[in-house]
């Protein structure tokens, strides 16, 4: 339904431009989320400009290169040929019609939301805001961020005194604001990106309609919700659901190990139930930018409402403990072979936070390596997707991926990430001992294997 049809209004003009694919789309933050989004809009013939503060990324893209493994250079070159541009010059935002923000939302050292990337981006946009522009936040965050953090900065920082268009107060001198969460699943090739429904919550019906039109151009289905906060909470519900269920199977794995049961066999059997059960799998700990981080955005916000999110805290406790369980398992397995962790050579297979991706963020492998090193183990690692591990927010390992050969030289081969490139039969054959945190050696029978 079109709310306002007079083509002279900024709303109608933008709606029309979106329908004609003439709306100039800005994507702020060209990382794992922003770059694919910018390429999708370019593919759909929108004029797209990507903005980032990281000059290296801008230079790489302008030269037709890439920094994300699953986006090969020809994809960037094709997008460039179709008009995709990249810049760190925020004054060019004034020429844009829609601005989509995809910047990081990590936790600080006290495990609290770090909104500095959102606030800095908002401060960068505000001076260039125009009436009739649409600003959409995609970064995962707690309910209330769009209205309590983003909009005040945009309103205070623009010279023209523009206000966000609010329900019941239609205003041609306003800009439009919405929140729409990102639902990407890195490494998942079973669902095309455009077939993942896109949830959208506008500050007012006009913002919702514009955002729905914009996303409707690249996604098969748009799911409107009543407010930005409802859309923010939707994303957190999805990720908390995963976090809590992974904690549940992690805890049940610990019990199953003690009871001599194979948790993976049990999960597979339970998953044959055609209703009411969705399988989650245990592992060496949570990783990635989302699942270990996002739930704590909500538990932090909940305190403002005098509310404790006990499921989130408990799930966090169990999941954070998993790398320690891996350390104990390696120590026990070595001990059974009359060896100590101290001085043992351990080869860690896979450091990416999940299978077949090149993303290290919050990877449990980093904690496991640090824990083993602290006990005196000599660690090497192999990962076909991560040639080097340098310095991150919480670690400084400075290690190079070692070739997958002479496996017999290691006292223990520790499978942390089950990349599908690995030949697990060969790994078992050549290793002295294999500690498997992912059930990657499923189907292989050998006294060398310890599943944990
Ligand atoms: N990676 C995923 O799979 C995934 C999935 C769903 C949701 N998310 C959410 O999406 C958001 C972005 O995540 P990501 O993985 O793409 O992060 P990323 O770190 O890969 O990319 C963020 C980019 O933003 C840039 N940036 C930082 N400050 C900026 C500023 N002021 N202006 C312009 N650019 C700036 C950084 O240089 C970087 O290139 C986060 O909130 C994350 O939680 C990520």
Q: Topology, please?
A:
Blueprint: H1 10-19, E1 25-28, H2 34-43, E2 48-51, H3 55-62, H4 73-81, E3 85-87, E4 98-101, H5 116-125, E5 134-137, H6 145-157, E6 163-164, E7 174-179, E8 198-202, H7 205-216, E9 222-225, H8 228-259, H9 263-270, H10 294-304, H11 310-336, E10 345-349, H12 364-374, E11 378-382, E12 388-391, E13 396-400, E14 412-415, H13 424-430, E15 434-436, E16 449-451
Parallel strand pairs: 1-2, 1-4, 2-3, 4-5, 5-7, 6-7, 8-9, 10-11, 10-14, 14-15, 15-16
Antiparallel strand pairs: 7-8, 12-13
Structural write-up:
By secondary structure, the protein is of the alpha/beta class. The chain has 13 helices and 16 strands. The protein has helices at 10-19, 34-43, 55-62, 73-81, 116-125, 145-157, 205-216, 228-259, 263-270, 294-304, 310-336, 364-374, 424-430, and strands at 25-28, 48-51, 85-87, 98-101, 134-137, 163-164, 174-179, 198-202, 222-225, 345-349, 378-382, 388-391, 396-400, 412-415, 434-436, 449-451. The strands form three sheets. Strands 1, 2, 3, 4, 5, 6, 7, 8 and 9 form a nine-stranded mixed sheet that branches. α12 (364-374) links the parallel β10 and β11. The longest helix is centred in the middle third of the chain and has 32 residues, at 228-259. Nicotinamide-adenine-dinucleotide binds next to α5.
